[in-house]
Amino acid sequence: GAGVSQSPSNKVTEKGKDVELRCDPISGHTALYWYRQSLGQGLEFLIYFQGNSAPDKSGLPSDRFSAERTGGSVSTLTIQRTQQEDSAVYLCASSPGREFNGYTFGSGTRLTVV
Amino acid sequence: AQKITQTQPGMFVQEKEAVTLDCTYDTSDPSYGLFWYKQPSSGEMIFLIYQGSYDQQNATEGRYSLNFQKARKSANLVISASQLGDSAMYFCAMSYSSNTGKLIFGQGTTLQVKP
To answer: In a 10 Å sphere around its CB, with 0-12 CB exposed, 13-18 middle and 19+ buried, how is residue A14 labelled?
Structure first.
């Protein structure tokens, strides 16, 4: 696609429910990243994919968080048993490879846990 | 450990004037990259400018320039001739060679351009 696409754009869920957030990167981009942005804060790294592998998942805050990527394309971030502190904007980014010249972000998914 | 510090939570600038947004960083890695992103109220992250640690010249992109002072570990963003559309949150970020391309972000600076 022309840009990084994320869905849904907004998600309200009840505490304790599971949620899935989707990221569709730019076609051909092998590197994919998930970040989290809490209200008024900077971005916090969650996980990095190169192809379908996740060589760096050091930012996942707990074992309730998991992510996968299939076909070297779409990625899904799953949060199980959501808590109120999970409320944030979840941003996905992709790049052609492991490069030091920036990458393209999606518009994010705003998750609200009530 | 790597760290990015943005000490200005909020800044005001008059339209058509220049403004400098501060960013300092800390890393022991000799190879790293410095980035600035703009985040308007709509929420998307827009890449503005990049500076590599070995680049001799300061990076420029249109009205944006990065004032890179390696010895002081600073990477300030200069926006010339501010426009109303420049009002947004601005984030400084760093990558380093021993990582996977992930970025470490500062806390951001909110810029408001006054007409």
So the answer is: exposed
Q: How far is A41 from chain B (nearest CA, A)?
A: 6
Considering CB atoms only, which of A31, A41, A100 is closest to B52? A100
Q: How far is B6 from A113, CA to CA, in rounded Å?
A: 29
Q: What is the pLDDT of residues B57-114, one digit of tens each?
A: 999 999 999 999 999 999 999 999 999 999 999 999 998 766 678 899 999 999 999 9
- Do A98 and B101 touch, CB atoms closer than 8 A? yes
What is the CA angle B92-A42-A103, rounded to 5?
60
Q: What is the distance between the alpha carbons of residues B57 and B50, in angstroms, rounded to a whole number? A: 12
A101 and chain B in contact, CB less than 8 A: yes
Is A65 an 8 Å CB contact of chain B? no
